[in-house]
Amino acid sequence: MKTRTRIAPALLLLWLAAAGAHAQTTTPAAAARKAAAQTASKATAQKASAQQRAVPAPWRAALERVSADSMRGHLSFISSDLLEGRNTPSRGLEVAAEYIAAQFRRAGLEPLGDDGYFQTATWALAGRDMSGFRMSIASGGSAASVSAERVSLGTSVAGFNLWSPEGDLALKDAGLLKVDFNGGAALAREQVAGRVVLTELPELPRGDRARALQLLRDENDFLARMHALGSPLVVAFDRAEGRGGRGAGQPRLVDPESGARPSFFGDAPTAPLVTVHGAEAARLFDSLPAGATSATLTLRVPAPAETPIRVRNVAGLLRGSDPALRETYVIVSAHYDHLGVREPCDRQKEDCVYNGANDDGSGTVGVIEMASALSKLNPRPRRSVVFLAFFGEEKGLLGSRYYGRHPLVPLARTVAQVNLEQIGRTDDSEGPQVGTAAVTGFDYSDIGATLERAGEAAGVRFYKHPTKSDAYFSRSDNQSLADAGVPAHTVGVAFEFPDYHAVGDEWPKVDFANMERVVRAIALGVLTVADNPQEPRWNEQNPKAAQYVEAWKKLHGR
Ligand SMILES: [Zn+2]
Predict the structure, then answer these.
(1) What is the CATH number of the domain that holds 451?
(2) How far is CA 46 from CA 40, 43, 51, 57, 266, in A?
(3) C-alpha 426 – ligand 1 centre gap (Å)
(4) Same domain assignment for residues 275 and 352
(5) How far is the CA of 335 from the centre of ligand 1 (A)?
(6) Residues 364 and 288 occupy one common structural domain
(7) Diameter of the chain measured on Cα atoms
(8) For a Cys staple, 430 with which of 30, 321, 372, 515, CB 3.0–4.6 Å?
(9) In CATH, what number is assigned to the domain containing residue 144?
């Protein structure tokens, strides 16, 4: 039941964002957008007072319970160093889950999980005992051995997981073939079959996302081609010092159901990859002649051992008031995990904790605050509202994908999902984002327009970012429900901010006054959807929504 896991989209995004970060500057287009935003927000504010009167008084009272101080309190705990960056899985993540459940309990939500408010996924951690690792290259009567600290298993030079070894891997006195990475396509089966291929993988270009992604694809294609030509193993050499050992001994999260999931690079099987790091290894590589050599390789990589673990989504329900519509559901969600602790890092001397205050402590706190505010409503909205906090987003949208496969309320009766991402910080790379919130896939469904109208009443401009709204649609926890056919979007304030995926993403940098305004506006949009007998629809006029329209039809048997 094990499967190769490869590069997770979210991790790729992480790296690509980091690679491009220093290339961001304020462009004239961004400045123009900023000016337009300021004008629009002035107009919005003028309209707002008139439209606030259109919001029913009980709703207005509920929205006013959303408070900056309350959210500052929640976020200062959830993003504190004590929770150690909420890695999936970790004790810090478990503490955060318990805290979220406690807030749902306080709000009086109905528990929706298999274990109170918890939806439990029983997964495993696969780790290998590298003390059994052996690798040596014998040439002309002498043998050079490579220690476990010098190798990575299955990762490219940049640390991306291209192949994860299953079971153990053992080779004795295997023949070697040294090839140029770019010459892989010219090789024939009789040259490669049965031989270990030695090569040097190129460095990923920094600051050029398209080329970096293409190179990762090329590396994956190289491994797939070597497998197809009958090579049992590719050994790559990395000249840089200090990068060894990555991906060798660290335990890896295993989702027992992931077998059928397509990998990011496609499904072609690849040859195993062992990367050897450091100048000494590079000298060994340089000393071997190109092509087939008389040198041989002996290798033993011990099999990983799996230990069961549990990871948990947190789920609570606010039951609707209409006898029929209460059996339909609107989901409000965010991911509560983050990146854990930076390593290697000296915790006595430097900041090592990825606090993830904005990403996505802010969304998590938005969910908690909205649950608390809306639970006091009398009457409640007609439909039921499900409040969800997902694990594992940073590892590749794991918690929301798990939910998509194991929905706690029927997907066919789930009418919408509004997912919150990075709603706390306003210092976007394109300039301050005050009183605005972007909706991903804005016009894929009519939810964007519903939020826009709610925003006009609440003094927030919901908008479609000209390039990022569509590009980010598939990169967040709305994707798994969208794939199932449920109109699902993510709302965020800043797409990119200075401490994105860095240890400086801490709660004092959050603009809580703005967050209060944004959460109230989102809450009004959610109430509007939850109270409207007409359910949201995908936009059949937008070709980018075509696959979701199809999924919706399938979900509803039409
Ligand atoms: Zn996030």
Answers:
(1) 3.40.630.10
(2) 10, 5, 9, 20, 51
(3) 15
(4) no
(5) 7
(6) no
(7) 89
(8) 30
(9) 3.50.30
- Per-residue pLDDT 10s for the chain (558 aa) are 333 333 444 444 444 444 333 333 344 445 555 555 555 555 555 555 555 558 999 999 999 999 999 999 999 999 999 999 999 999 999 999 999 999 999 999 999 999 999 999 999 988 888 888 999 999 888 888 998 888 888 776 666 666 666 778 899 999 999 999 998 778 999 999 999 999 998 877 777 778 888 888 888 889 999 999 999 999 999 887 766 665 566 677 888 887 544 456 777 888 888 988 888 888 889 989 999 988 999 999 888 888 899 999 999 999 999 999 999 999 999 999 999 999 878 889 999 999 999 999 999 999 999 999 999 999 999 999 999 999 999 998 999 999 999 999 999 999 999 999 999 999 999 999 999 999 999 999 999 999 999 999 999 999 999 999 999 999 999 999 999 999 999 999 999 999 999 999 999 999 999 999 999 999 999 999 999 999 999 999 999 999 999 999 999 998
> Which residue from 379, 385, 434 is spatially nearest to 414, judged by alpha carbons?
385
Last residue of one domain, picked from the residues 252, 271, 304: 304
User: What is d(CA 307, CA 373) in angstroms, rounded to the nearest whole number?
Assistant: 40
Sign of CA dihedral 360, 363, 368, 371: negative
Distance 223 CA to ligand 1 centre (A): 31
State the sign of the Cα–Cα–Cα–Cα dihedral 533, 536, 537, 542: positive
Q: Which domain holds residue 501?
A: 41-122+308-555
- Residue 294 dihedral angles phi and psi, to the nearest 5°: -85, -5
Residues 6 or more apart whose Cβ sits within 8 Å of residue 147: none
* Ligand 1 centroid from CA 222, angstroms: 32
Positive or negative torsion for Cα 26, 31, 32, 33:
positive
Domain boundary among 280, 304, 328: 304
Whether residue 128 is contained in a domain is answered as no
Ligand 1: centre distance to CA 6 (Å): 20
